[in-house]
Amino acid sequence: MDSLLLPVQLKLDRATLRAKSLLEISKKLGHDVASHTELLPERRGFRLIVDDIPHFKSLDDACLDLSELVHMLRSALDNLAFALARVKLDPPTVPGAIHFPIHESEATFSDKRITNCLSQMPPQAAEKITEVQPFQRGKHPEIGDDGKPSDDPLLVLQKLSNTDKHRVPAVALLGQVKQDHSHTVEFYSEEDASANVPPDTSVAVDPLRPGLVVLEYRTNCPIKSATGQWAIEARLMVSVDGGWLPFEQTVEQLVWYVNLIADQFRPFFKGEA
Fold first, then answer.
1. pTM metric for this prediction
2. Which residues of the chain have pLDDT under 50?
3. Rounded to an integer, what distance in angstroms lies between the CA atom of residue 83 and that of residue 98?
4. CB distance 18 to 70 below 8 Å
5. CA atoms within 13 A on the CB side of 90
6. Cα(133)–Cα(135) distance, integer angstroms
7. What is the pLDDT of residue 235?
8. What value does the CA radius of gyration of the chain take, rounded to a whole number of Å?
9. Nearest-CA neighbor of 237 among 160, 155, 182, 133?
10. How many CB atoms within 10 Å of residue 219?
């Protein structure tokens, strides 16, 4: 292997190993979640509460491992950009300007900082970096290119990296995938039952945690009993730009796509480009 590519490959290999450990954590947490009910004060309804979640503390490990994975992948791309610059001139003229740009907007990609970066690389390498930008997605619907820039794995990586470095660490959480519940409430009289139609119920869709109230049924008079069945299914998710993405799919896609991108530049280090 070309010595210029060795740091890139080492990080990509380590990222692959980290992804495997993340997927193991995800398997532990991907099970049905137990819950119990308790009556509200004065028996005026009931609430459904999440019990202790097996391996819930593994979420902390998932967050840290995800941060390390994101850092290794993002820095591998920056290392790749620096290696490309060294192919043209070693050492580069302005090393501080070199990075692997990732942009959702073509307008932001054309600023002076990007120009200073790409001009230090072989022209064909600079063209290829431009070709793989997220803003290029969706430009050719005639050939089946119906993707959106916001869905591009490079952009997901960039958002995770920026959040992790400048705001808070990458967040893994248990998102509710499915919630099924059927219950029967018995009142002390027909009059009380009639006075509570329709039911006053609220359901939480927050990420699951022990003690979370996922359902609350409120009445304006005491109830005699409440029985039923509840099933809550959760899956590990990753928080990206205010939304949730499936954890396993995101981890696998990031590792696969960054390796795919890196492979496109290998010919520049073998004199084949």
1. 0.84
2. 142-144
3. 10
4. no
5. 7
6. 5
7. 84
8. 26
9. 160
10. 21
